[in-house]
Structures are given as structure tokens and as C-alpha cells.
């Protein structure tokens, strides 16, 4: 072979190696990325699913039943957001470990309850028995924008220690509601 052909092949090999490197990086980024869903993205997905199911019925359920279920779920979600005052802005979930009957997922949530913003990060360990799945919350970390309220800081520390998300959301809802009442009262007297 002459040197010109060798150089041409070497250039081609180098271009292919660079392309492989870029594709590998892109693949790794996609694998490590967490998926964030905003409220608009959820509604867009719901609408696209509705369009997909308009003409399709695979025998499992009719489209009218699916639409009714979807509308019912949307109504329930709307009611819960109004009732609790909690609105989630983003959520990401990443599976950290999965083997047999054990799954570990890392979750990140952010949102607000009335005028208080919060961010949560935790690991969810799910152990599956023959009859049920038992979830356990580990490594709970809560960030609140509640100012210098020492009672709230103590409460958040206690919740993080015990990993009790239900207690956190129940108490947050009540606390934020009363903060809102207090703010309105002080505005009234200004």
C-alpha cells in the first residue's frame, strides 16, 4: 500500500474512534440522567396518550374506560393538590440497584406547599415478598426555605432521622397553611 492510502485509512479510523467516543459519552449521559417531569410535561404526555388510544383498542379495556380512568385520576390529583396545598414541581427517579426481590431507587422531589418551598432526596428500598412489597425510606434529606424557624428545623431533623415522609407531608401542609394565615393577618394590620 502506498502512504496516501494508509493516511486515508488512518484518518477514517480516527473519525470512527471519535464518533464512537461521542456516542459512548451520549449513552452514559442518558443512563445517568434523571428524568424530570414538570406539570406541563405530564399534561402533554397525558394528551398524547389520549390521542394514541383514540383509535386503538387492544381488547384489554376500551378507550372510553381508559379516558374515564384518566379523568378520574386527574380529578383526584387536582383535589389532593387543593386539599393539601402541596404541588410538586419536579421529580426524578433513578434505579441504583436491582437484584431479585430487592430494588433501590433514588428519588428527588421539589415543590411547594402554599408559600413554603421544599426539596427532598431519599432512597427507597423495596423488598418484595411472595404476597406484598414493603418499601423503606433511607437517607432522607430535606431542604426547606422556611427562614430561621428553629421549631421547623428541629422537626425536619427529626423527620430525616426517622425517614417518615407521611409525617413530613401532613405536618408541612398544616404548618404552611397556618403560616399563610399568619402572613395574611399581619398584612391586614399593616
TrEMBL record:
Alphabetical list of InterPro entries matching this protein: CENP-P
Example of a GO biological process term: CENP-A containing chromatin assembly
Ligase keyword on record: no
UniProt keywords, alphabetically: Coiled coil
An example Gene Ontology CC term for this record: nucleus
Xref: Pfam families: CENP-P
Keyword Transport: no
Residue stretches in coiled coil: 6-33
Protein's UniProt name: CENPP protein
Species of provenance: Pedionomus torquatus (Plains-wanderer)
Gene behind this protein: Cenpp
